[in-house]
């Protein structure tokens, strides 16, 4: 949750930027809001809100753009950068601009409910990817959710971590966590990881558990944790940025060979760490961000056609990456030479 992962300080978007987006939408649709089912959605306009523009969300963006292009859909995309104010203003502009559907990963599972309701009340279906609003609210307001099995995302790498230490004869490792608990998805990842490790190593010791999902802050937090507790054997990070920060924290404190890292998500930088620092970064469980983006577009097309949703939840499979599998890592780097996961 390359999570997005991704909360920024709330800022005010310029009126000029909103006006520009409004004009763009006006040129794409003459309807004043709301949408009617169409058997042929080609040429329709959909809106997409991104939580970030890098890492995991860069892959989401590419998947959405590729999906829209393949079906001749006009796309209006904006990056909220995790900013609730930007999200609200972008959503208002999209809603009034007459888009036929909106794809988004909400900034907050609770605070974003009003903006989702705004689109719903205007007759515009909302499709969530990666994260969504609370389940109770989503049932009446969201057409579909395309995501990963978040608990499994943490669980699979947790089993790997437990077996890693068991093989080394360390039955009570000290593990610190860099979380992104502001998102429910991240809470589930952490729970999956912890339960999996405990199933292999009941005596595991949980050290620090701190927020660490923004690139610079994650590195600083990991460095501080290791400085204060040099007996930490491993980090688990719930996002790509957190995983990068954990590796950099180990490097900054000269803990190579003493502290290892397990994480979630995959990116070009993480793949390169597998190659250059295989004794630090041991394993991550990666999401297929582009498949998630394409899946969200497909659900948007179904909504525009007026199809009754068959499965509210679409789960995209994950892939476990390990430093020990150099062929797998090199293949991923080759496939993603453009740097987009």
Main sheet characteristics: 6 strands, parallel
Task: Enter the CATH topology name of the largest domain.
Answer: Rossmann fold
Q: Structural class, from helix and strand content?
A: alpha/beta
Helix content: 40-55%
CATH class of the largest domain: Alpha Beta
> Main sheet: which strands, in order across?
2-1-3-4-5-11
Task: Give the overall form.
Answer: elongated
What number of domains?
A: 2
Strand fraction: 15-25%
What's the average pLDDT? 88
Q: How is this structure best described in words?
A:
It is a single chain. By secondary structure, this protein is an alpha/beta fold. It has two domains: 15-149 and 290-317, Response regulator (Rossmann fold); 150-287 and 320-335, 3-Layer(aba) Sandwich (Rossmann fold), CATH 3.40.50. The chain is 46% helix and 18% strand. The chain contains twelve helices and twelve strands. The chain has helices at 15-28, 55-70, 84-96, 113-121, 135-141, 150-167, 184-200, 215-228, 240-252, 268-276, 289-304, 326-335; strands at residues 45-50, 74-79, 101-104, 126-129, 144-147, 174-179, 205-211, 234-237, 260-264, 281-287, 313-315, 318-322. A six-stranded parallel beta sheet has the order 2-1-3-4-5-11, with helices on both faces. The protein has a six-stranded mixed beta sheet with strand order 7-6-8-9-10-12, with helices on both faces. Helix 5 links the parallel strand 4 (126-129) and strand 5 (144-147). Helix 3 (84-96) runs parallel beside helix 4 and helix 10 (268-276) packs antiparallel against helix 12 (326-335). It is elongated, with a radius of gyration of 21 Å. It starts with 14 loop residues before the first helix and ends in a 6-residue tail after the last helix. Residues 1-34 have low confidence and may be disordered.
